[in-house]
Write a structure and sequence with these properties.
Length: about 270
Amino acid sequence: MSKKGQNFTDNDKGVSPVIGMILILVIVTVSIGMIYSTGIPMLDNAKISTHIQNIHNSFSVLHNNIEEVVRGPITGAGTARTTEISMDGGTLAVTPNNTKIEVIYINTTTTTLSWVPGTISYDYKGTAVIYENGAVFTKYPSGSIVELEPLIYAANLSSGDVAIMIHIINISGANSSTGGKGTSRVRTYATEEGFSNIFTGEVTIVSINITSQNYQAWDKYLNTTISRAGATYTSNFLPNDTVVALITNPGGGISLSIHETQIRSNVG
């Protein structure tokens, strides 16, 4: 048949390779889109989670180092401790006067004690790990959780009384911060004032009021600690990020002990 009379509409030569190439391009394009939309965010989230876990480990060392400072000098080591923090783009800061703790107790009279301890914090892509009054918190956009417990304890005594021990870790020092890559260090040491026994005695009511960005986590910790000891715990929140915690013991008295250690910290 001559080319003039040939029916080209029925000629499908070369169609299959073209369709195959189009399908391959579509599959490649969709795959790349899926990688960018799901794969890369998953890898980024995994990287962030791994780094935050490393920061938790570093703050666990910091927590232990500060407790060593609180307990007193170790022979040959003195009272100063240095903790290394891997930065990876985060921000490490010592912020003085960043919280407020108020303890009110009643025996024959009403006594109010207050402190404004500082914090040591590491901020990284919307998540913060914070050392605050002896505790370590992780603060997410949705709220905070206690990672390591403070030196605030309660115990049920055989007499029916409840013993409550409150140890204030009062961090002070100049406002200092650092960021970027590499490794930074937190240096902590006891001030000349050091350890103080503030009060020891029998009381009828104790109120612990904490103003903090982690106030809800403080409430959960205090509630669990006090309730396990058999005392009665009630609390309410104030608009300025404050939890007001009231402790009573209808079945007996309260043996209260309050201590303070003044710590100075700086980063660099």
